[in-house]
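Example 3.
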Amino acid sequence: MDINKVQSNEQIEKDLMPRAFGPYGKLWVVFLLFIGGIGLYYYVQQLRHGLVVTGLRDYTTWGIYIANFVFFVAISLVGSLMSAVLKLTNVKWRTPLTRISEMIAVAAIMFAGLIIIVDMGRPDRFLNVIFHARIQSPITWDVIVITTYLFISMLLLYLPLLPDLAIMRDRFKTIPKWQQKMYAFMANNWKGTSEQHKILNKSVMLLSVMIIPVAFGIHTVTSWLFATTLRPGWDSTNFGPYFISGAFMVGAGAVIATMFVFRKFYGLHKYITLDHFDKMGRLLVLLSLVYLYFNVNEYFVPAYKMKGSESAHLKELFTGAYAPLFWSVQIGGMLIPIIVLLFKKGRTPLIMFVISIMVIVGAWFKRFLIVIPTLHHPYFPMDQAPEAWSHYTPTFAEWCITGGSLAGALLIVTFLVRYFPIIPVEETIEEQKGGTNELNIERGYQPQIEKI
Amino acid sequence: MEKHIIEPTNPRRDFLKTAAIGVAIASCGSALCSCNKSNSNSEDQVVLLSPEGELVTVDSSALKAANKSHCVSGEASRKGIPGKKFVMVVDLARCKNAQKCQESCDKNHHTQYPKEYLKVLKMQDNPSASPYWQPTMCFHCDEPPCVKVCPVDATFKRDDGLVLIDNDRCIGCRFCMAACPYSQRVFNWGEPEKIESEITCKSPEKSGVNTTMGTVEKCDFCPDMVREGQMPHCVSACPNGVFYFGDENEDAVSNGEDTVRLSKLLADRAGYRAMEDLGTKPRLYYLPPVNRLFPFEDAAETEEDHSAN
């Protein structure tokens, strides 16, 4: 932790404990509820009339719901990045960012599951996926790994929260009864004994190890929903690492955006420092470079060959109808962030916030470009189909439902932040003491390494 | 051409007709049979094509009117017709885009544009080659990519070669549509129009009858017709004998007019399967559009030239 001045424990608790929404917070919640409500209204319409309310038709059978699904799965990988990868590599500065990452991960993976149900023609038959499951279908694999990832992520959010829940149970006396009961129930008799710390540390360490293959699993399997088909543009062995590297990149972007917002509105300057921005900026550059590498593989190699079936797809992306979007996403969502963040002057909060928004928006539309244009280039000509079917324009209802799902995920993050500390309180206190508690001893089983 | 078809010059056609009449009697009362035609022709002895593919001669008095048409559902509809291996051959040299196949398919499966199981595509293999018409439907592949990806076993491969869909199980994820490289699957995007039909049978063998919102449909090779010893609707509707349908085990296919050896037909006429390199092993073969019966004419005069394959 790079807290300039040692804070008293009381000060830390005062700074970091959840607070009731201010006027901006309330406005934000109302806004999200409004967007979510519109989405819900249109989803009811879709349930009533079928997927005909969307812009989807035969040929373009998957659209922004699926793109949004891939986006959510991608974002959710941030949890494993911050709380597992950085934990196991003993990166200390991650402490104030772990919880917010897990919150994003849990919210995103929940809505990944929901949006896939929204895309189903028969959501009422969802349980067929379990009762009539066939193991050779990548969808079955996806159901298995996403459920596993959701549970591990929730545990990785909940377990490290235990000491903080105990603090809230013991200190918060003026809050409503139900809230007190909730904290008491969730704290699960946490007393902070060394035995409890030991079990907790072991569990968190175990989960951190477990979540990495599962995280790779969810996004690799998600990429296989496309890569296991025979369609030009999807038929790529590069898809797994291509998706994973993109996911880590957008995940880091999401952390930067949220840490900027909460730092500003919750006044967390003492805890989320400029140094954190600098390090997250470097991390984002590294992850973006990896993603750039897989992009080169994904587009350059087929473009060099221009195989007959691939060429129509590639030309549409490079110079055709999707070219403006494609180049905006590749340049604005990948190249510019790399260049800007390479410079120290670029790694300041406001610039990084703007860059991270570019990365996130770029990532969403990149998923659009991965899912949709391929479907416009089937092997057989489409001239028997109505002319309109060779394009895809999402309908208003479709945008509203998609927007509603994004608002819903943000709402979950917002409410988690409302009731739980966004920065681990107990861990911060202990770290400030100089690493005397078992958490740090446990973490210190590896030799101390320099901050990256 | 029409005239040529109607003339019952071929013994096989006679046989088929007799068989059809026989089965029609056997299943009289069925909504599908054409009893009115057959009544006047009935004689003492009737030749029947049994479901096993054997010819049986029975006295007409021994025949009882069946009280229902073939409604095979549940597990039986997933097994297939025993001993059969259905196959189709489409002779591209004979197709002039008369669209009778499409009309008949639409009518009998209660589908309508743009949701159609059978499409006659305008193909052109390369810029120098003349375009041709290609009737295209589900190929009932032996390595079906659609079946592989279905998470709930709603679409399945039967022992008789058919790939069918259980519309009561389909969850509407449309993964099969993404997986099918031939784009032959259609989706009920909205509430389908209620069809006025006395057929209440819910079976994967009756595509289009049990049409359900939010589920996938496609060509089923009309197993309900085949069970009655009749040809799929597209085969019997075609005025030019483009479609040959038959059983690979018997090594015989017929377009309703000529019955020929499947192996000889494919060997002599250089039969091929669409996009062989994808490894899907379609059960539908094409005969190349050489020595055509008709010059290529595109009534719509579409300006675009689509290259394919």
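The first helix of chain B runs from residue 2 to 6. Chain B has ten helices and 13 strands.
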